[in-house]
Amino acid sequence: MATKIAVAQFCAGQSVATNLATCIGLMSQACKESAKMIFLPEASDFIGNPSEEAMTLSHPVIGTDTGPFLTGLCAQAKQLGIWCSVGIHEKSPRSGKLYNTHVLINHRGDIVEAYRKIHLFDVNIANGPILMESNNTVPGTQLVAPVPTPAGRVGLGICYDLRFPEMALALRKQGVEVLTFPSAFTIKTGEAHWEVLLRSRAIETQSYVVAAAQAGKHSEKRASYGHAMIVDPWGKILAECDGHSEGIAVASVDLASLTRIRAEMPVLDHRRYDIFP
Predict the structure, then answer these.
(1) Residue 42 appears among annotated catalytic residues
(2) Domains of the chain: which residue ranges?
(3) Is the pTM for the entire model greater than 0.85?
(4) Digit-coded pLDDT (tens) for 109-121
(5) Which of 11, 31, 42, 91 is catalytic?
(6) Which is catalytic among the residues 23, 31, 159, 241?
(7) Is the CA virtual torsion 157, 47, 98, 76 positive or negative?
(8) Alpha-carbon torsion 170, 105, 180, 127, what sign?
(9) Is 117 noted as a catalytic residue in this protein?
């Protein structure tokens, strides 16, 4: 049986309240489209804030003080009866640094899993961005096991993690059926690599890949590529947003089709772990 899901994109700014209102609206759109699960971008809570302000705006994921952004999303998920995947900033034990965290919320409004980004985006691209995520972010130290959801077993990644196939393959060996990478890809890297990376991860793991995206100009110095996308296990793009508009794209996850593809071409069984451990 196929399950409808929605992938979202928007242009987050510095206001948590404004971004929350946008996300709540996107969740409502997804519900109207009969989606059972919505995927929101990386850093949906805020983008572009000064470091000191970012620290005060961030909250823990576990405990009673999860802050207004997560509290609002959990309430909306419960009201609509929809699952939600979202990227946020999370308070860490390290002074002056945060986690880049991917949170999964169920249809009852409960936070069921949180993954902290393990690959940090420290790059200096010629004629492109200079970004040092490690200046204000603590890297995570572990994968989290795929989570059962209405769309299948979902494996959590974030943005730059998309470039590391060993991570996707590790989740595949743990039984993943849907890989998801909430992102804020730069324009330059998005134009060059976004689609090919998403389709590659889908093909090599024979999994659905869902990538929500930040889209548009956040500030004078920061812009995101957009093109939120859902890709099937054969590498076909099922749904895609454009490069700048706020909105959702909807498609169905068909686990019977996934099972057939994996049976017809059992690449996981053919891997030579004796040669490539």
Answers:
(1) yes
(2) 2-270
(3) yes
(4) 999 999 999 999 9
(5) 42
(6) 159
(7) negative
(8) negative
(9) yes
